[in-house]
């Protein structure tokens, strides 16, 4: 990287990254995989303070960020339930909260229940903001770790075939990942989902406009045999309201099990943003092509990379 | 400072500080403003452990203390909801809890829902206790940061004119601040509040006994034009019970807006303990005389100073 | 200790320790009592990360572990309410959660509401697991600190007389302690409890099979005059359901007060796992034979020892 070319100020949405920046982030993430206890790298962020301002609980994401900060020698201020932090409880605006918390810390990792909250925070703050999910909106660090995992597992992002499976209508992760994949060449995407949770037109139109080939399929076995990556997602019960019948029907429709692994190519992998219920059966966990726990671990490296880049620059 | 003259053992209430101690604390707070990452100052409290024992949540105050400790290289044990800590849940006394927690830490920052709890804790503990608010009682570090902010912004505390506005009956902060201001000379205090939340007689009598001039006024514009400091507070809805009508009436009565700023003297400032609702309009935030976010930041320096003084002495 | 003879991999239940291992752990705990701020010992676990995965709150136990880790220079990731951590909330299995969290940390301290959960976690994890209590099952670090306290206070475990008092049916601590005491010679145990919460036959049979003498007694004064250790426990109201009358009767039956201390031998001590209600009266706290707060503090040293042994070996 040359100089400050990619000065990263905030991480707000998957779309903000161009291909060059993505590659640069992935390069730093690779370095982060090599950071060991009691080496200079493990003290990179010594003296820096990260505040995790979580307006809704997400222990997994919070721990991943806090681990990333501490693996680099930084310190953490935790708010697991920031709704009590005046905002909801006493009526303070998000902007006022941010202006207070930025006085106590060097970077804020925020999760919020409202789409657009992270952008509002970034507009107000004079320190970097990382969006750790804002409602139905964005979860950009998940998209980055997904793309990073594909590159680590398959060796490239150009020319890959990806099957997105499960809840494509509401699943924030598959929508964000589609955005990132569109930055690469010759990508082919297959959508495999129950009818009630099909991929929406905005993403389809976007992919088409970016020259990305996509098709819908009802045949998971066929897709599995052709793809480099099968990205399975959980059908979220809370999206179905009182229609439990529709949920139950959707939920059991596309399961990744040993049969699917049997048709999978040797170099291919199965990914999942976790947590999973039974949409991937546990008997395939020991197959080396089951990449989902490695994927979770990659979240640590991506977050280490982002913290380093936002606080110290390139 | 000469030797251990001001040996500070606990921080329990605003009244415990004489003028000389206040000045000494403010001097240390000024030094704390200069502590930078990776300088020796940032390691002053290395190896020390602070426990935040919060029986009611107060994220803002907790984060401020935890940031202060970590900025000085210390470590933190957090209990965001100490009511579960046996006391309420299993019937353990506060004294037993303190005797257990003092075995794990070097200093305890405690917030409690009962007036007098901090003093009871200090009587039991062999390590320093800081009162981070005990019910309707005291919140001494807020009073200290308020007085420190006046000194930083106006340059002195003697001879100042202060307008206390809003909820003067229940507002813990204005009551404590009045106590501290009484230690200085030639102070003049104006009380501006809706009838239902007027300043109570105990404070008025105390000020009179200390030779502090005060008057009540219903004319915020007049007071604003005369004062060095306008200290606005939030009308707390929870104080009005079912009388929402009284709350609504009280709430809208004295708003600090552009009109108030227009009559404010050039050197004057507006303060607020935060969080605010609409008692200060956001359009004045960018005016340099809006001091409330600087005030919040001063809380960090005051708490750093207290932690240093309680753990290392002068 | 010779080489890696006692390679400790996980801490799951009191029964896993033989006498030799117990002695070795107690030896390390003694060293831990001497660790001072800013000495090399205080940096033993620098760079190591401990995750506290608590599926039910236990502030006391959590703080003790977190203090232990930080006193040795390690860092902590905290989850005070891990039930929200997908498992309960979204249906993730404990195994999946463990496989994610082990990616973020070097050791996991887990408290769970289900008996056997810690063993399941240890089977899954490739990093050490410490059981900090799993439902009605085990709480091995409490048993270790209890035995360590007896050795520290009385000077030995062989040949001692111990009175276990209070809730012997449901009290996890007395059951685990009985298991540990059975590893020593010439131990005599007296059970003193209300009828409704008498010691169960499994423990009695186990003690008999191990050659440990025991008897039941209804005379606390007589037992107190004969024993080296009186181990008092709290009668847990939640065990009695709607039979508040039985609870009230059981609760007041055996109180350790000044009368009991009057018949206690000079070298004897009173212990309690805390929290206490009124089963030990506060007026005896100042008697040097009241060992319960020293016992709580010993929990810190035992946990420091275990963390050191699990992460660095002998």
Automatic annotation (TrEMBL), chains A, B, C:
<dbReference type="InterPro" id="IPR006132">
    <property type="entry name" value="Asp/Orn_carbamoyltranf_P-bd"/>
</dbReference>
<comment type="pathway">
    <text>Pyrimidine metabolism; UMP biosynthesis via de novo pathway; (S)-dihydroorotate from bicarbonate: step 2/3.</text>
</comment>
<keyword id="KW-0665">Pyrimidine biosynthesis</keyword>
<comment type="subunit">
    <text>Homotrimer.</text>
</comment>
<feature type="domain" description="Aspartate/ornithine carbamoyltransferase carbamoyl-P binding">
    <location>
        <begin position="10"/>
        <end position="151"/>
    </location>
</feature>
<dbReference type="InterPro" id="IPR006130">
    <property type="entry name" value="Asp/Orn_carbamoylTrfase"/>
</dbReference>
<keyword id="KW-0808">Transferase</keyword>
<protein>
    <recommendedName>
        <fullName>aspartate carbamoyltransferase</fullName>
        <ecNumber>2.1.3.2</ecNumber>
    </recommendedName>
</protein>
<dbReference type="Pfam" id="PF02729">
    <property type="entry name" value="OTCace_N"/>
</dbReference>
<dbReference type="InterPro" id="IPR006131">
    <property type="entry name" value="Asp_carbamoyltransf_Asp/Orn-bd"/>
</dbReference>
<feature type="domain" description="Aspartate/ornithine carbamoyltransferase Asp/Orn-binding">
    <location>
        <begin position="158"/>
        <end position="309"/>
    </location>
</feature>
<dbReference type="InterPro" id="IPR036901">
    <property type="entry name" value="Asp/Orn_carbamoylTrfase_sf"/>
</dbReference>
<dbReference type="InterPro" id="IPR002082">
    <property type="entry name" value="Asp_carbamoyltransf"/>
</dbReference>
<comment type="function">
    <text>Catalyzes the condensation of carbamoyl phosphate and aspartate to form carbamoyl aspartate and inorganic phosphate, the committed step in the de novo pyrimidine nucleotide biosynthesis pathway.</text>
</comment>
<comment type="similarity">
    <text>Belongs to the aspartate/ornithine carbamoyltransferase superfamily. ATCase family.</text>
</comment>
<dbReference type="Pfam" id="PF00185">
    <property type="entry name" value="OTCace"/>
</dbReference>
């Amino acid at each position: 990287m040359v100089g400050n070319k990619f000065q990263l100020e905030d991480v707000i949405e998957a779309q903000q990254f161009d291909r060059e920046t993505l590659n640069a982030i992935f390069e730093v993430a690779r370095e982060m995989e090599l950071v060991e206890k009691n080496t200079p790298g493990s003290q990179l962020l010594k003296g820096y303070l990260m505040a995790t301002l979580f307006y809704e609980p997400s222990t997994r994401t919070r721990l991943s960020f806090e681990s990333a900060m501490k693996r680099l020698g930084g310190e953490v201020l935790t708010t697991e339930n920031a709704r009590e932090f005046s905002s909801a409880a006493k009526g303070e605006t998000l902007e006022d909260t941010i202006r207070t918390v930025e006085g106590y810390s060097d970077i804020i990792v925020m999760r919020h229940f409202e789409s657009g909250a992270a952008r509002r925070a970034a507009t107000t703050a004079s320190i970097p903001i990382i969006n750790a999910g804002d409602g139905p909106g964005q979860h950009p660090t998940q998209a980055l770790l997904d793309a990073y995992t594909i590159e680590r597992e398959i060796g490239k992002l150009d020319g890959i075939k990806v099957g997105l499976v499960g809840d494509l209508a509401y699943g924030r992760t598959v929508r964000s990942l589609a955005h990132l994949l569109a930055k690469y060449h010759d990508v082919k995407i297959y959508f495999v989902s129950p009818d009630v949770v099909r991929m929406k037109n905005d993403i389809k139109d976007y992919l088409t406009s970016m020259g990305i080939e996509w098709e819908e399929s009802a045949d998971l076995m066929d897709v599995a045999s052709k793809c480099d990556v099968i990205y399975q997602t959980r059908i979220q019960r809370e999206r179905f309201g009182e229609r439990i019948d529709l949920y139950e029907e959707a939920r059991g429709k596309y399961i990744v099990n040993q049969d699917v692994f049997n048709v999978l190519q040797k170099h291919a992998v199965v990914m999942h943003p976790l947590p999973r219920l039974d949409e991937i059966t546990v008997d395939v966990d020991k197959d080396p092509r089951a990449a989902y726990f490695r994927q979770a671990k990659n979240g640590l490296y991506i977050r280490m990379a982002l913290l380093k880049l936002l606080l110290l620059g390139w």
